[in-house]
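for ur thesis appendix - LisH/CRA/RING-U-box domains-containing protein. copy paste whatever u need, i formatted it the way the template wanted (i think)
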Amino acid sequence: MELSTIKDAFDRVSKKQKLSTSKSVEVIDQFGHEIEQALANIQSLQVPISPADKRSILVELKTKLSSITPHNQLEGSQKEVNINLSKYQKTLEKVFNPDISKAYRNVDFDPHIVNHIIAIHFYRVGLFDVADCLVNEAGEPEAISLKTRFLELHQMLEAMRGRNLKPALDWVSTNRENLKQIGSNLELKLLRLQFVEILQNRTRADALNYARTYLSPLASVHMDEIQKLMGCLLWVGKLDKCPYSDLFSPTHWEILADELTQQFCSFLGQSYGSPLNVVVAAGVEGLPTLLKLANVMAAKKQEWLAMKQLPVPVDLGKEFQFHSIFVCPVSRDQASEENPPMLLLCGHVLCKQSISKLSKNSTRTFKCPYCPLEASAAQCRQIYF
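the 3d part is after this line
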């Protein structure tokens, strides 16, 4: 709804701006036409031209230009633009609250960890000079240990952008055993991409020799894939009609670059996505809810600052869910270290605090809220997701 309101306000400003521009062009064209007409009248006079004739034409031109009244014509349209622009600004200020500090709570961050995260982010995205500057000025030499590894990754990705797979294939060869342990077929995909590149840009014989050298050792495990590639040899010169034409899509380069990045970061013990990007994106997603909560609790500032758990849910979407979440079906509270999920004898799960209330602080047995079986607090066992 809010985005729709903003779009409507923007469309009104845009429409008024176009009308104002059109009116300005119309007035300018009128001026140009009268001036050109006056020049034509002067040129049509017999030579020599008398000063009186020139004066007469110029006086007439002045009268016509004054009658156009450009100020009056433009004032109204520009006024409407200004009015709608002012309304648009107020709409933005109302919807996008510029004072996001209301949702801020003082948290004792460890400067060392924050600096480390930022430096690693810059190394991850390839801004090595910026990361080095931060490491030196913040005094965080530990972060620089990953520089050479991320430099290696970016060299591979840069080579792939230039259709050069050799650095990536060398890395796969070095880490072949580790890749096998996690069931990765990254090597096959890189070799397949190299085979396709040769088939598209060189001869059939070159592609066949490459397959014999590099693909044949994988035949016992990936025979189906290799048979498809051998079938492509029959379509040289008309690869667009090949039944396996999807193998020649340029999107495979981007997809494989992402997969290479994911495997590389995994071996480094790093997440695929930048933690800093995730934090910022999650903060942007949850900010509207936090701002509304801050406004509602403006009169209870101390209570808001002292809260250990938010009183309202902040829905960040599945892309920001990195672990299982259990919500007690009785209390509707989310499980925590202090209030963990507990398994009853019947197989149902409640949070510890709910079991404590049902058992009167573990002084008697209680009936499960979802089945007729009874249990005691001592019989319940903590479970882990």
